[in-house]
Structure formats: structure tokens, C-alpha cells
UniProtKB/TrEMBL annotation:
Task of the protein: An FAD-requiring monooxygenase active on some tetracycline antibiotic derivatives, which leads to their inactivation. Hydroxylates carbon 11a of tetracycline and some analogs.
Keyword Nucleotide-binding (UniProt): yes
InterPro entries: FAD-bd, FAD/NAD-bd_sf, TetX_monooxygenase
Name recorded for this polypeptide: Flavin-dependent monooxygenase
Residues engaged in binding FAD: 45, 103, 292
FAD-binding domain segment(s): 3-198, 288-321
Pfam families in the record: FAD_binding_3
GO molecular function, one term: monooxygenase activity
Cofactor(s) needed for function: FAD
């Protein structure tokens, strides 16, 4: 029987890999023309019980541990005036509970573990029906099970539910400093080896060290959905955009605005959206969803972990019921709905903290049990 997976993100690839390990063929259809056609974003912290469990089921845990960055678990938490609230430095012998890994490296690991024919690049999904997948180039193919792993703007989702992502009240601008150890060693020392957060006053700055020496910087503004249009940030002029962003952080410690000033010409605006927490749909025997297509959450550390585990557990369910896709889909969805509802509520709670005026102190209380 034919399994078609739409989307070559982490969840879709984890599903294809677990199926491959269990002797089941599947084809992944990806709209991008090649694996390197688009940047994959920054670092991920993979949790032992979710993301790492999925990598273990995929038979890739040793390769993952070789590329994971233990020191990426370091954390520095500050207030806008520069007050240091928390500093966690990871010992060299600390367990790999939540190590950081470059998203692109993890995706390459999954891609390289699959047969070359398992991913069909340049196949933009348009619609499906009567056992046929239709693509933007006019081609089509048959399927017995269709899995939507096509992210926040999933086209497959519409086959199961009318739910659509809605704005969270958070708008993010991504910037970055390349080769920070060489170009700005003082800022490199300030950021440290992992994550650097300054929170408060209805906005935040986070800096995240990547494995390639780049520090990605995310400026968050907790505002209305149309705020980018009213912000006065000229996104088509990077230098002027940086100057405007610095103005928006007037009153913050000068070290934070120095980070913004040191960035290159990457200035990427992103509106943050989510699906309703606890979203479900009536089980359909030949279609299901995973990852952001099923349960888009605020970007606070759960999304990629949930997507990877979705893929692994759906793969295991299909391996356990190779001749009964409806039973496998039903088993997978029952577990997934419960697990991701809990994760969605937790993510929403963290998002609420980040949007509060005293976010720094509240996040300190959140981290203290660790």
C-alpha cells in the first residue's frame, strides 16, 4: 500500500525514516526544489522524552549525540536594565537532556538516512481526492494513506478541519551576527555558549549561538497583528531597519543595542501564529496530520520535539498494523491529541509569561525548579 507524506520537514522525514527502518516504503513530496533551497532556521533543543526518543526510534541516536552541542544548554537571563537574573553554565560531563542541535544538520541527518528515491523534490501539493495526489506542475500520483507534514500553512489540513492559524500577539524580527568570535569577541563573551535572553517591557531580545559560529538574534514585540505595517521598520533597507530597531529598544542596556548594531543585513520579519490548543478532527482512514500541520504552537521549545515524536509514533503504529491503516491512524491520533494538547497548554502558559510586563522575573521563577 502507498504512503504519501507531504512535506520534508523534521516530522515528515522522521516518519519516513521509522517506516524505512521497519521495512515499509513511503514517498515524501516536498515543494522546495532541493534540500538546500531554503534556510532551515537556528538551533533546536531536543528533549530526552520526545525529540530524542524519536531519533532513537529512527536508529540515529549515536549520530545525533555526535553532532549535539551540550554547551548549547547554557542560559543567561536578564532584565532590560542589564540586571542578570540567572546564569546556568553546563558542566562538561552533564547529561544530554536538552542539547542544542542545528536544525539544518538534523534535517540532513534524516535525509541522508533515507534512500535517494524516498524524497521527491519540486512537488508542490495542490489537492487530493479519490486516492490521487495532485501537484502544482500538473502531475499526480496515487496514495492509500496521505500524511500532511506540511507545516503551519498546511494545505492537507483543509481535508480534515476548517481550523486555521491565528495571530498570537507576537511579532518577531530575526537578525544575526556571523563569525561572532572573530568579528565581535566582546559580544561573543557576553552571549556565551548557549541562549541569552533579555525580557520585559512588552518586548524581548534573545540571542542564540549556532554551531557555525553565527549568533541568531530574535527581537520580539507583543503587539497587534498589523504592527509591522505601523512600526516604521524599513525592511527593504537593512541599515535603516537596524537603526529603527535600536530606537525601539531605547532605555534598554547599551549592551543589547550593541548586539543589534553588530548584525549583518539579514532582517526577517515573522508574525507568530498558532492553532487552537486541543484541536482534533474526526478520524479519517486515509488522511492524517503531524507536526505544525496538526498542532502549531508558540515557538518556546515544544514544536520540533512534538513533530519528531509524531513522525516516529505514527511510523511505529503503521509498522504494528501494516495491513490496517485505519487502525494505525486511529491509534496514533488518540495518543497525539492527548500529548500535544498538554504540550500546547504548557507552551501557551510560557507565551503568556513572555508577554507580561515583568517577564524576566516570571521566567526566573519558571526556571528555578531546574
Amino acid at each position: 500500500m502507498t504512503i504519501g507524506i507531504v512535506g520534508a520537514g523534521l516530522g515528515g522525514l522522521a516518519l519516513a525514516r521509522v517506516l524505512h527502518v521497519n521495512g515499509i516504503d513511503a514517498i515524501v513530496y516536498e515543494r522546495e526544489p532541493s534540500r538546500d533551497a531554503r534556510g532551515q532556521g537556528g538551533m533546536l533543543d531536543l528533549h530526552t522524552e520526545t525529540g530524542q526518543r524519536a531519533i532513537h526510534e529512527a536508529g540515529l541516536i549515536d549520530q545525533f549525540r555526535a553532532m549535539a552541542r551540550r554547551e548549547g544548554q547554557d542560559l543567561r537571563l536578564l532584565e532590560p536594565d542589564g540586571t542578570l537574573l540567572l546564569q546556568e553554565d553546563t558542566p562538561e560531563d552533564a547529561p544530554l537532556d536538552r542539547p542544542e542541535v542545528d536544525r539544518a544538520d538534523l534535517r540532513h541527518l534524516l535525509l541522508d538516512s533515507l534512500p535517494e528515491h524516498a524524497v521527491r523534490w519540486g512537488h508542490a501539493f495542490e489537492h487530493a481526492g479519490d486516492g490521487l495526489l495532485h501537484f502544482a506542475d500538473g502531475s499526480s500520483t496515487t496514495y492509500d494513506l496521505l500524511v500532511g507534514a506540511d507545516g503551519a500553512d498546511s494545505r492537507v489540513r483543509a481535508l480534515l478541519t476548517d481550523a486555521r492559524p491565528t495571530h498570537t500577539g507576537q511579532n518577531v524580527v530575526e537578525l544575526g551576527i556571523p563569525e561572532i568570535d572573530r568579528t565581535h569577541p566582546d559580544l561573543a563573551a557576553m552571549v556565551g555558549r548557549g541562549n541569552y535572553w533579555a525580557l520585559g517591557n512588552g518586548q524581548s531580545l534573545s540571542a542564540q549561538r549556532n554551531g557555525d559560529g553565527r549568533v541568531r538574534i530574535y527581537l520580539s514585540f507583543y503587539t497587534a497583528e498589523d504592527w509591522f505595517g505601523r512600526s516604521g521598520i524599513p525592511f527593504d533597507d537593512p541599515a535603516a531597519a537596524r537603526a529603527r530597531l535600536i530606537d525601539l529598544f531605547t532605555g534598554w542596556d547599551a549592551r543589547f543595542t550593541a548586539l543589534i548594531a553588530a548584525c549583518d543585513d539579514t532582517v526577517l520579519p515573522r508574525s507568530i501564529t498558532t492553532l487552537p490548543v486541543g484541536l482534533t478532527w474526526p478520524s479519517t482512514p486515509d488522511i492524517t496530520l503531524l507536526g505544525d500541520a496538526a498542532h502549531l504552537m508558540p515557538p518556546v521549545g515544544q514544536g520540533a520535539n512534538m513533530a519528531l515524536l509524531d513522525g516516529a509514533l505514527l511510523g511505529l503504529a503503521l509498522a504494528a498494523h501494516p495491513d490496517d491503516f485505519p487502525a494505525a491512524v486511529g491509534e496514533y491520533e488518540r495518543e497525539m491529541f492527548e500529548r500535544t494538547s498538554t504540550a500546547g497548554r504548557q507552551s501557551a502558559s510560557v507565551q503568556e509569561i513572555l508577554m507580561s510586563p515583568d517577564a524576566g522575573r516570571k521566567m526566573l521563577a519558571f526556571f528555578q525548579p531546574r
